[in-house]
Amino acid sequence: MKTRKQLTKNDMFYISALHMAWQCYMIGAGQKVDTTLEEHIDTLADGLDNLRYFYSIASEIVGPEATYEEIADSFLDNAPRLMHESWMAYKMSEGWVYGAKKDKKAREHPNLVEYDLLSRMEKTKDIVICMAFLEASRVAREYLYE
Fold it and tell me: Which terminal residue of the chain has fewer beta carbons within 10 Å of its beta carbon, N or C?
């Protein structure tokens, strides 16, 4: 994982897009948004590296002649589950355990369960984050790297 000083402007573009998508989804779902970008930056930077890796896997699955839409479909079929598993491993490595309610002091989180046991809302949130990554990738390709 990169340190904050190693993050490029490109990395920060993606990280900001992921954070905004996560916040918008939380607000839309009626959940409390209790973290800032600064508080989430390490988790998002790690997540960004994972999403880039998952995207490369999706590209390999569909082959070199695949369209962006085919790669995106393959990515969305697999990345949300992989992202959750990666997030879970990260949280557990930081000492977090399952708890019925999120408790930062006790390091307990209700989503420290297998992907299939997540609520529909939590699975949708993972899909939204993956879709935000795809959209940020499209925007970057079309407007930032012309």
Answer: C
> Which helix (H) or strand (E) is 20 found in, with range?
helix 9-28
Question: Tokens for 14?
Answer: 């993606």
- Please, what sign has the CA dihedral across residues 89, 80, 22, 101? negative
Distances from the Cα of 30 to the Cαs of 36, 53, 118, in angstroms? 17, 31, 17
Which DSSP state fits 108? E
Q: Put residue 54 in one of left, alpha, beta given phi > 0 → left and psi -120 to 50 → alpha.
A: alpha
- Specify the DSSP class assigned to residue 140: I
How far is the CA of 139 from the CAs of 26, 90, 133, in angstroms? 23, 29, 10
Of the candidates 109, 126, 123, 96, the residue with the CA atom closest to the CA atom of residue 21: 126
**Closest Cα partner for 22 from 11, 10, 8, 35?**
35
Structure confidence by residue, pLDDT tens digits, 33-70: 877 888 878 878 888 888 888 888 888 888 888 888 89
Q: How far apart are CA 71 and CA 75, in angstroms?
A: 6
